[in-house]
């Protein structure tokens, strides 16, 4: 069956870029991306897209209004589509059973109910959201319980492996595309139909087909293994700081990736831990829980280091936070370490000057006034100021805490920044991207992750009761 019309439910970081690339590569297919949020759809139809991704603007401009449409009219889009992607959000549950760990599938369920209610013809429904194993079964249950005569469904699992910040490149040149489906003639036909879309630009050998459950589990497993590698290197970074080894060198020597922030959402490993517990596999759950704990330890260790270096008190101090996104080249702040750093510093009484090239001011306030972060929004309003460039953000501050590895932070004029700061001036490089030697030469006190830095002897103006590591 050749797919002529695609509908995508969810115009977020996954749905928007994925469908834009499909529209670009499949000019004969009409792709409609729908969302419940009118505001988000209006942004997709404007000059300022709701998400920042390098290369995305060009792809959208090339297809929008031709074979790519953003709409809130989900009824028409579902009715007309041969194939429907479910790309809705699957956050961690914030209440009830599995609170703080299990994936909240209410949006996936909502999407399935919409499809069941509206459809009048056969549909291939593709689960693109990251979901627990056997979620496809729940979707099928909803669809078949509301079945109408002459309408049949095939559910496929097609997890997304793109990383924010490089989404367009990842979508254009994926290492692999994974498609899981039912092991039946109809299942295979549906898999083939989805394969034929990707085959417009991806070699067949890079398209892996499996059964549904293997595909669902592979996404969680891939995230968990990536997180495990990051946690391993994070654990070694603590050893490096105590011994004089350099974590970047160790990582290179053992062929590991030293990224501290990555595209691996903690929510997906939490979900894996929860699934293992539900399956009565406590040892497996404990194994993956330790990966999460190590990630938390790394964040706590970093903020503890900042406070300790600033004479164990940041109360009343001005601290510049450079970067708020969870990684460079995105405006997404979900699970960003900057939120944890900001919370701790605010709890300790600091005043924060925040600058991020792509995160909107309203988003920063939304994140910091979330009930889990700060009980008093007034306190955040009073203690946080947002700036539109790094020089203004750092002027008059006691310390800089670098939270996101934006390229522009590497090439700032640190002599100029140093001269505008309170002395002694501190820099905490949470992403290990700056030239520490030259910062030390300028006169900064510098600390980073996974490496002990010694100030040049001549510059040590602080007496022995202050420990400079
Ligand atoms: P997002 O939050 O950016 O977008 C989801 C969108 O779905 C929202 O705009 C929401 O309004 C919309 N929505 C919810 N219910 C709807 C419905 N019934 N009909 C239409 N729209 C609806 O989320 P994002 O980041 O795009 O993630 C989507 C899924 O993809 C999640 O399961 C996530 O875990 C997964 N994923 C995300 C990656 C990422 O880097 N962001 C990478 C790989 C997978």
From TrEMBL:
GO terms for molecular function: NAD binding; UDP-glucose 6-dehydrogenase activity. Residues 320-436 form the UDP-glucose/GDP-mannose dehydrogenase C-terminal domain. Signal peptide: none annotated. It is an enzyme of class 1 (oxidoreductase). It catalyses: UDP-alpha-D-glucose + 2 NAD(+) + H2O = UDP-alpha-D-glucuronate + 2 NADH + 3 H(+). InterPro entries: 6-PGluconate_DH-like_C_sf, NAD(P)-bd_dom_sf, UDP-Glc/GDP-Man, UDP-Glc/GDP-Man_DH_C, UDP-Glc/GDP-Man_DH_C_sf, UDP-Glc/GDP-Man_DH_dimer, UDP-Glc/GDP-Man_DH_N, UDPglc_DH_euk. It comes from the Eukaryota. GO terms for cellular component: nucleus. The active site is at residue 264. Its EC number is 1.1.1.22. Keywords: NAD, Oxidoreductase. NAD(+) binds at residues 10-15, 35, 40, 88-92, 129-130, 164, 264-267, 334. Pathway: Nucleotide-sugar biosynthesis; UDP-alpha-D-glucuronate biosynthesis; UDP-alpha-D-glucuronate from UDP-alpha-D-glucose: step 1/1. GO terms for biological process: glycosaminoglycan biosynthetic process. Belongs to the UDP-glucose/GDP-mannose dehydrogenase family. Involved in the biosynthesis of glycosaminoglycans; hyaluronan, chondroitin sulfate, and heparan sulfate. This is UDP-glucose 6-dehydrogenase. It comes from Aquatica leii.
């Amino acid at each position: 069956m050749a797919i002529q019309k695609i509908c995508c439910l969810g115009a977020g970081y996954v749905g928007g870029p994925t469908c834009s690339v499909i529209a670009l590569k499949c000019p004969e297919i009409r792709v409609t991306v729908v969302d419940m949020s009118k505001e988000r759809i209006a942004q997709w139809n404007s000059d300022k897209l709701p998400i920042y991704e390098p290369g995305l603007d060009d792809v959208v401009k090339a297809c929008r209004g031709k074979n790519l449409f953003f709409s809130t009219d989900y009824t028409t889009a579902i009715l007309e589509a041969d194939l429907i992607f479910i790309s809705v959000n699957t956050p961690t549950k914030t209440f009830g059973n599995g609170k703080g760990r299990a994936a909240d599938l209410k949006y996936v369920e909502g999407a399935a109910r919409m499809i069941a209610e509206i459809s009048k013809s056969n549909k291939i429904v593709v689960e693109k959201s990251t979901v627990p194993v056997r979620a496809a079964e729940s979707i099928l249950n909803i669809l078949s319980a509301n079945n109408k005569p002459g309408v049949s469904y095939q559910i496929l699992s097609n997890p997304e492996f793109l990383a924010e910040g490089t989404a367009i490149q990842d979508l254009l040149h994926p290492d692999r595309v994974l498609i899981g489906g039912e092991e039946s003639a109809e299942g295979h036909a549906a898999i083939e139909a989805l394969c034929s879309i990707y085959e417009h630009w991806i070699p067949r050998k890079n398209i892996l087909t499996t059964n549904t459950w293997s595909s669902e589990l592979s996404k969680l497993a891939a995230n968990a293994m990536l997180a495990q590698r990051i946690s391993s290197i994070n654990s070694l970074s603590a050893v490096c700081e105590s011994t004089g080894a350099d974590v970047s060198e160790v990582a290179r020597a053992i062929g590991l990736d030293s990224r501290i922030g990555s595209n691996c959402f903690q929510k997906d490993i939490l979900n894996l831990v929860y699934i293992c517990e539900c399956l009565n596999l406590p040892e497996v759950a404990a194994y993956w829980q330790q990966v999460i704990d190590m990630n938390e330890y790394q964040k706590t260790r970093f903020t503890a280091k900042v406070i300790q270096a600033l004479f164990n008190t940041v109360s009343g101090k001005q601290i510049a936070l450079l970067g708020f996104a969870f990684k460079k080249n995105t405006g997404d702040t979900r699970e960003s370490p900057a939120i944890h750093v900001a919370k701790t510093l605010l709890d300790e009484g600091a005043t924060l000057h925040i600058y991020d090239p792509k995160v909107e001011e309203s988003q920063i306030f939304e994140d910091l006034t979330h009930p889990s972060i700060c009980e008093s929004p007034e306190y955040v309003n009073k203690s946080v100021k947002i700036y539109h460039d790094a020089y203004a953000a750092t002027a008059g501050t006691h310390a800089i805490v670098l939270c996101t590895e934006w390229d522009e932070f590497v090439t700032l004029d640190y002599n100029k920044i140093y001269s505008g700061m309170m002395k002694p001036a501190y820099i905490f490089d949470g992403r290990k991207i700056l030239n520490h030697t030259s910062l030390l030469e300028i006169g900064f006190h510098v600390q980073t992750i996974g490496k002990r830095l010694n100030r040049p002897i001549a510059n040590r103006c602080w007496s022995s009761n202050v420990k400079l590591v």
